[in-house]
Amino acid sequence: MSRHALTHSSGPRALLAALAVALCCAPAAWAQESSLKEEVKERLSRVETELDDWDVPGARRELSEVEKLLPADVEPLKYYQGRVAFEEGRYDDAVALLEGANIEDKPGSYLRLAKDTRDITKAHLRAESEHFIFQYPKGKEEVLVPYALETLEAIHRAMKEDLGWTPPGGKIRVEVVSNARELSKVSTLTEKQIGTTGTIAICKFNKLMVTSPKAVARGYDWQDTLAHEYIHLVISQMSRNTVPIWLHEGLAKFLESRWRGKAGLAMTPSTQALLGKRVKADTLIPFEKMHPSIALLPTAEDAATAFAEVFYAIDYVHGVKGTAGLRAIIQELKAGQKDRKAVEVAMGMPFTLFEKSWLAHIKKQPFPTELLPREDRVVLKENAKGNVKDEGEKKGREISFGDFQEVTEVPARKFAHLGELLRERNRVKAAAEEYAKAHELVGDKYESVSNKYALALLELRRLDEAENVLRGSLRVHPGSPSTNVHLGRILLYRKDYPKAKTAYLEALASDPFDPEIHLALTRIHGSLGETALATRARQASVLLTGLKPEEVDRVAQQFLQDEGGLSEMNVSGTSDSEAPAAQPEQQDAGN
């Protein structure tokens, strides 16, 4: 989610030099107007500055004045027209103008960037809300649309309230790309950098660029990510791009949960555990070492530690001064203050005292007592180790022996593996006993152990025990899609529709392409009388399963009306001819 500095082949100095040559070659009467030449150069310099400051409307205004003064075929004019066209999302125009400016077509150049972005997005579909344009590949990404626009509008309202800023210049573009290769092409980051840092989304060029969840091995918190990147856009525009990276990331991480409630909800227990370890070892990352990018720190653990540190820095500011403190820091930076001075003014204390108070604030946090597996790192499918389900693969009973690779405690891993072997052979009671042994050794530490144990308990119809295991896992691994789905089944079976809705929507926020989620929501929304939401869930189910709308309704109503679907769900990617058989199947729960 980090912002990245991007380099390009043609800078303002070279273009202004080219402008001087162009002016000398202009008609004599025009070229003799030295004051006019100075005005042109000054205005083009302002265009560059406005673009650097993320003020595209300002750049457009300055460029409109230059267009009145220069012949249309002057190359520097075409260059800046191309730059503005690119920032405004007019990619065909940008390519034509940059080619007319004789920009070299090579990696890192604006011309190559405009061409690649045009080619990747030309077939994209688009949906609009009041303040956003959401562009996405044709296919399953269509299910993202209503949830994405709701998230974006919610964070738009929240940032207007918290920071007092709404982006000028029309609707904000959000472009969904299919994979890391495409993200590389539209951002100029290399695929290696994306794979190494786990970068999944970028805010740059007056837009948000987000990778589809289908490219990620276990999904990712794509709604929080949309909010996070929008906050980067707001901060950059509001400050005229003067906020240093540590404050930028701290603000975005702290505020990203505002679309769904309070700020400060984004810190995971695993990251807290890592931060606690680094505090105890006295190996925190100094703020100055986070520049120019946290992603460039020596190790992934260093980067995760730095993100946690800046989160708690903003948490401390907010706790003492509220949103007024956050606004004050941004305004001081916009006015030209350095980061330390901006914090001093906003907080009313010397920076050294701020650092001591912030460190004391960190040490007060309720750190987990043991180091937990980090689940906040995005793993692309092509880099994933172990089993990654094919998109069309049915979930069935969710038997997989590769799920326990993360379990480092050998005895627990052996118990879990034996439990999976027994469950595969339908010896469910014996399987549950082995999972119980593994769970007793590691507690809620591993999602895989908790979920397989819960599935076995569900097959045995021991719902209360399964619910306790799942809720314990969610305390350590909040937002886990599989855990929320399994919990949702229990709640839906009990007809506790409001709580079931919460669980399935939590799952959707990380794994939006699981057909079960949308089938369950079709039934839940219908039962709650939420007609429009039921229609939305039904449309997503049709897209993801291939079933007809009336078949979706039938399957959704049958799902979890009895105990047979508690431990499995077999609807996914079915063709019309297969639809009648696409129902939950009851398994023998005996030993």
How would you characterize the overall build of this protein?
The structure is a single chain. The chain has 591 residues and is mainly alpha-helical. It has four domains: 12-121, Serine Threonine Protein Phosphatase 5, Tetratricopeptide repeat, CATH 1.25.40; 123-237, Collagenase ColT, N-terminal domain (Glutaredoxin), CATH 3.40.30; 242-374, no CATH class; 405-478, Tetratricopeptide repeat domain (Serine Threonine Protein Phosphatase 5, Tetratricopeptide repeat, Alpha Horseshoe). Helices cover 57% and strands 4% of the residues. The chain contains 25 helices and five strands. The protein has helices at 12-24, 28-31, 34-52, 56-67, 75-87, 91-100, 110-121, 145-162, 180-187, 191-197, 222-239, 245-255, 269-281, 300-334, 339-347, 351-363, 410-424, 428-442, 447-459, 463-476, 481-493, 497-508, 515-527, 531-545, 549-558; strands spanning 125-128, 132-136, 172-177, 201-204, 207-211. It has a five-stranded mixed sheet with strand order 1-2-3-5-4. Helix 8 (145-162) packs parallel to helix 11 and helix 23 (515-527) packs antiparallel against helix 24 (531-545). The longest helix is centred in the middle third of the chain and has 35 residues, at 300-334. It is globular. The two termini are 48 Å apart. Residues 578-591 have a biased composition (Low complexity). TPR repeats lie at residues 481-514.
